[in-house]
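REQUEST ID: PR-0412
SUBMITTED BY: lab tech R.K.
PRIORITY: routine
TASK: structure prediction, single protein chain
INPUT:
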Amino acid sequence: MSQLDRREFLGDLGTGVVSGGLAWQALLSLTPARAQELQVTPGLVQFRPEMEEIVKWIESTPRERILEGAVERLKKGLGYRHLVGGLFLAGIRNIKPRPVGFKFHAVMVIGAAHQLSLDAAQPDRLIPFFWALDNFKASQAQDVKEGDWSLAAVRESSVPSASQARQRFIDGMDRWDEEAADAAIAGLCRSAGAAEVMELVWPYAIRDWQNIGHKAIFAAGAWRTLELIGWEHAEPVLRSLVYGLLNGGSSDTAVPYDHNRELAGQIRADWLAGQPDPTVTTALLQTLRQASPKEAAASVVAHLNRGVSASSLWDAILLAASELLMRQQAIVPLHATTATNALYYTFRQSGSDSTRRLALLQAASWLALFRDGTRARGGFPDKPNIDEFQPAAVAPVSIESIFDGMQQSRSTAAAQTLAFSQAGGNQEKFFDAARHLIFTKGTDAHDFKFAASAFEDLTHASPAVRPKLLAASVFYLKGTRDPDSPLLQKAREALAIL
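STATUS: complete
OUTPUT:
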């Protein structure tokens, strides 16, 4: 690397062909640059030495210099995993997770950016993180305006022993006691395994619908990102997460949680042995259009107890979430998809039977809350129904033609996508085209979060409902005629593509 000319390296990295045969994957194994000395700021949480120096560079570099600085560090040997980790931890230390949303999207978007990058074409793979770096600097500046919050060091005298940490955490979270829960989660991270800690966290992450599901989204994103950067960085991340989860207090807890915990106990013991039933998917979808949160969860329990597979119920939930966004492309229905994704992710990741049951019931109840929350804002139509949505009479001539027509008519483009999918069109090629447009035209964290959620959920849905979900995604994806991201030119200049 040291023998490469800087301009040659940047040009090759931008085109995806690095001199000397260095491919993208090689960036994963490069050793990060280390500082000779680390200046410690009293009172602030400190990271491990290999990350602290990177975080300080990200924190202190002016926004107008951050992209060029990132490329310079990549050239010197900064690995991809350390770039992602440094950015994530900079957000953890500098961005207040209350409310869980708004400027804190600078942290929550990182997991989604990584998900999308995994399958991206080589020339695109760094662009999401260049966008995320710039977005962090904007959020950092906003946080300064709002009081300049920083994650403080844990009070060491309050951290419980390994034998006490578990119960102290449960007690603190149940009482909504911030100080007790903060010390307890630090103790857990130091003494328990990753899966063990997260099994304690998942139920509280899906406890309430406050911040339109962002607490569950933060938890899922934190776990995903820690899987990439390493559990050794978990303590500050989970302290930030717990602080966010306790936002609002018990008086603001959404009603369905306590009810659904009781309801979960009524599900038959062998519920995981149920059989798929597409007619039940349709029936539950119809129920979710008008049921109350409690009625929605009760319907799920009834179907499970009749021997229906949970997969058929998740199909209905995914369809119902997508239907809300088809009817109105706004912030609340958008989060019906991303929050449902977080709950479904929790369902798949957890090894606890009770947590899995609760995640499924909460997903059904939350959709009723999303539906009613959207209606409360006014102007919410009662059509289209996703199960009745019809494909175009003629399949599109190409994937490109679908994306080219999105700006003119989302509905027409969705009908063309449905025709394309039902005719056996290549789903991966559709994802490739959509992903590239998000990278080049995305201007908001939700562009990345939505696409990562929608694409992932589609792969876990039953084959019969995938065409409908793919068509529904068109209502929020970027089209060819959307303007390029203002940051794209800066990213290309930094990568010396031009």
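NOTES: The chain has a mean pLDDT of 90.
REVIEWED BY: pending
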